[in-house]
Amino acid sequence: MNTNDRKAKQIDNSSQANDDDPKKKKAHLRKAAGIVWKDPSLDDWPENDFRIFCGNLGNEVTTDILANAFRKYKSFNMAKVIREKRNNKTKGYGFVSLSDPQDMLDALKNMNNKFIGNRPITVKRSRWKDRELDSKKNKDFDNFIKDVYSPTKKFRKFKKPVKIDNKEVHDRLIDKKAKNS
């Protein structure tokens, strides 16, 4: 067990220490570049939702404007426009949470290229669950890495290059040309 696995286990254990409270949400563990961390930004979102990525948002679009555009769906939960921390400008994308899969499909079909603010937005299914530490995608990748770097694997060793004189190379080329003609 490497240090990152231990850290992930410690983070997971600390987040599950008070699981007696049924209102307590599961910790969202993320992994990238071999580092595992707890992502508190996902704690605000509903646990089992169907999330939509909204791209190509203009600077004038706020969370309220985005939410108002999707409130026509009965299962609408919340919306959020992602902003830069330094200057509070939008990064050009946001997310919308719906609790019904059929509403999500309808929103993907109907809201794509609709104008919100002064730009047509693009909508896609969000892949936030694929980035969780315990997702199938991460487990498959970890198994792949273990297979590639397992100590039982034997790799073919290459022979050391032999130093050849230029005259030898020239003679070989001349011999090949002579045989071909």
TrEMBL record:
Source domain of life: Eukaryota
Compositionally biased residues, Basic and acidic residues: 1-10
Coiled-coil intervals, chain numbering: none
Molecular function per GO: mRNA binding
RRM domain segment(s): 50-128
Keywords: RNA-binding
InterPro entries listed in its UniProt record: Nucleotide-bd_a/b_plait_sf, RBD_domain_sf, RBM42_RBP45_47-like, RBM42_RRM, RRM_dom
Ranges annotated as spanning the membrane: none
Disordered: annotated span: 1-29
Protein's recorded name: RNA-binding protein
Originating species: Plasmodium ovale wallikeri
Taxon lineage: Eukaryota, Sar, Alveolata, Apicomplexa, Aconoidasida
